[in-house]
């Protein structure tokens, strides 16, 4: 139990620092790399929670595909002549106030509701259990998500095509 | 492990994402902040799945969220690319053609 809490602490610290990095860094490339750290840390937390399948899907989809998309997006939308302009608008203090208020609210509610609830892991989740759930109880949402992905794929091609 | 440590981590990441969405003016960085918020939600879903031992529905929902996040990034970046091609800028403050 102590080892799990230590691993949690290390991962959570890395994720928190990187999350601040994503929203504060001045270099847009660094933001994409910080996002890799946050997603990898999230995958680590999933393994800690016994959710191996979700963890590896997160690694494949996020670190493998989404980050590459982001890097291409950055490369294609940056004008080298005007790269020096600021990445932030002038809403820094209202944004910080909104985020801090929300954080305070969430922390209060969460500590009030789940103060002493423990997670007791008996065994990691088998992938079989997840697929049984998807293909038995959630087959219609699964098909709809497949259709949504197809629509998003065609939509992205149509939008980004030069004609 | 306490359930709350995961929930508080998720809350922190979500708030960082909110801050990013409000303060960033580069469209790609706004999309990245939205991804941060979705990652926070996923941690919550998987934590509750582990808390209700033997119940995998939370993990199934996390997979759905992952899929939809991937679709969102694809379409979002295509729109950003289109905006960039039209006004030569990915600065959201420059997208004000509809402003009266």
Attribute tags:
heterodimer; A: 163 residues; mainly alpha; Four Helix Bundle (Hemerythrin (Met), subunit A); 2 domains; 6 helices; B: mainly alpha; 3 helices; elongated
How many helices of chain B? The count is: 3
Taking pLDDT < 50 over at least 5 consecutive residues as the criterion, the unreliable ranges of chain B are none
Structural domain count of chain B:
1
Shape of chain B: elongated
CATH superfamily of the largest domain in chain A: NADH-ubiquinone/plastoquinone oxidoreductase chain 6, subunit NuoJ
Order of helices and strands of chain A: HHHHHH
Shape of chain A: globular
Radius of gyration of chain A: 20 Å
Distance N to C terminus of chain A: 59 Å
Q: From the 3D coordinates, which CATH architecture of the largest domain in chain A would you assign? A: Up-down Bundle
Summarize the structure in words.
The complex is a heterodimer of chains A (163) and B (100). Helices cover 76% and strands 0% of the residues of chain A. Chain A folds into 2 domains: 1-79, Four Helix Bundle (Hemerythrin (Met), subunit A) (Up-down Bundle); 126-163. Chain A is globular and about 55 Å long. Chain A contains 6 helices and no strands. Chain A starts with a helix and ends with a helix. Chain A has 163 residues and is mainly α. In chain A, helix 1 (2-24) packs antiparallel against helix 2. Chain B is mainly alpha-helical. Chain B has one domain: Helix Hairpins (Orthogonal Bundle). In chain B, 77% of the residues lie in helices and 0% in strands. Chain B has 3 helices and no strands. Chain B has helices at 3-23, 27-51, 57-87. In chain B, helix 1 packs antiparallel against helix 2 (27-51) and helix 2 packs antiparallel against helix 3 (57-87). Chain B is elongated and about 55 Å long. The termini of chain B are far apart. The mean pLDDT of chain B is 91. Classes of the chains: A mainly alpha (163), B mainly alpha (100).
């Amino acid at each position: 139990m102590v080892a799990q809490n230590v691993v949690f602490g290390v991962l959570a610290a890395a994720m928190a620092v990187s999350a601040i990095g994503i929203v504060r860094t001045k270099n847009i490339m660094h933001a994409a790399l910080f996002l890799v750290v946050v997603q990898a840390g999230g995958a680590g937390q999933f393994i800690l929670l016994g959710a191996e399948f979700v963890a590896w899907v997160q690694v494949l989809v996020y670190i493998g595909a989404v980050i590459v998309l982001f890097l291409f997006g950055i490369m294609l939308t940056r004008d080298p002549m005007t790269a020096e302009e600021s990445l932030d608008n002038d809403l820094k203090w209202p944004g910080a106030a909104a985020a801090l208020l929300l954080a305070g609210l969430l922390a209060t509610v969460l500590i009030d509701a789940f103060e002493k609830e423990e997670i007791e892991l008996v065994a990691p989740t088998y992938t079989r259990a997840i697929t049984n759930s998807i293909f038995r109880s959630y087959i219609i949402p699964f098909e709809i998500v497949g259709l949504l992905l197809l629509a998003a794929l065609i939509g992205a091609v149509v939008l980004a095509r030069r004609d | 492990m306490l359930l709350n440590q995961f929930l508080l981590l998720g809350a922190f990441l979500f708030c960082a994402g909110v801050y990013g969405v409000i303060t960033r003016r580069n469209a790609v960085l706004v999309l990245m902040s939205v991804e941060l918020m979705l990652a926070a939600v996923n941690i919550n879903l998987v934590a509750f799945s582990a808390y209700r031992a033997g119940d995998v529905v939370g993990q199934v929902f996390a997979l759905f969220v992952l899929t939809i996040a991937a679709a969102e990034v694809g379409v979002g970046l295509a729109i950003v690319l289109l905006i960039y091609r039209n006004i030569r800028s990915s600065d959201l403050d420059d997208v004000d053609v509809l402003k009266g």
